[in-house]
Amino acid sequence: MTDPDPTAPDLETRAAAVVDACRAGSLAGPMALTRLLMLADAEEDARGLLSRLAADEPDTPCWRDLLALLAARPTAFATVKGLLSAVVHGAPRAGGPDAAIAATAAMFDRAVALSPEGGVALYSLGDPTLLAAATDELVRFMEAQGLLRQDYDVLEIGCGIGRIMAALAGRVRSVHGLDISPAMVAEAKARCAGLPNATVALTDGRDLSTLDEETFDLVLAIDAFPYLVDAGGDVVARHVAEAARVLRPGGRLLVVNYSYRDDPAADRADFEALGRAAGLQPLAADDTPFRLWDGRVYLARRP
Predict the structure, then answer these.
(1) Which of 103, 113, 149, 220 is the most buried (most CB within 10 A)?
(2) 8 Å CB contact between 116 and 139
(3) CATH for 128-301?
(4) pLDDT tens digits, residue range 168-221?
């Protein structure tokens, strides 16, 4: 057995930013617990840290809340670690765009087999209830922005398991989802089977060429663009241009999370530049309106 490296930072040191954000109330419980589990080498390490914090800071209820959240989800640690091994964020794929798209599709096939909910949102800890709460928060945001109407046709790029499609189906005229993962598409079709205005299709991930122009009032991509960025700048540019093509005049493109490179200024500049090149008017970029997850909003309109 190898002795621990005495120079390696302990969990508390590595988790300092998470602890500070939790203490300040700026990081919701599921997100905070997910990040702690990502950093921990064993579930007992995360539980021990939370127990120490709860004992040292009895007037800070978030530690007890996180302990209760973990206790109620005995598979959370295994789900997080399993998905981390299956899904790699922010790593450019070798072999060009086609190889990158194929690798991402295979990655999400593996993810949905491990946990459909966790595969589309790690912060759900694989729990349908937690994922539904985050989905509801997104839908409320979209309604507040005037993005949903009963006479709207909606396209979702990277629809995953269809959780957003199912939430939108009763609020719009139609919703059509595309995804590159056959396993995700199968899951989305099953979830949307009873919704006559929801359709799902497998896409090659290169563009939206199978869709007619001026067909949709809203194109949305929730946590999908980071994988287009991984596939290369040309793939991202084509998707923005194609989104502009399939939007009706006045329609909007909503992207939540542009990349995982942790550079909001660069994401904003790229989104606005690509939007303008495609004839879209930027409306918002780098907004973080959500409480339950860390989505950054990028919004543009076709004049």
Answers:
(1) 220
(2) no
(3) 3.40.50.150
(4) 999 999 999 999 999 999 999 999 999 999 999 999 999 999 999 999 999 999
pLDDT of residue 6 exceeding 60, the answer is no
Coil/strand/helix, residue 228: helix
Alpha carbon of residue 81 to chain centroid: 17
| Displacement of CA 44 from its chain's centroid (Å) | 28
Instruction: State the average pLDDT for the chain.
Output: 93
Cβ distance 297 to 254 under 8 Å?
A: yes
Enumerate the domain spans of the chain.
Answer: 11-72, 128-301
> Rounded to the nearest 5°, which phi and psi values hold at 149?
-145, 155
Burial of 289 (0-12, 13-18, 19+ CB in 10 A): middle
Distance CA 157, CA 175 (A): 11
Q: What is the pLDDT of residues 149-161, one digit of tens each?
A: 999 999 999 999 9
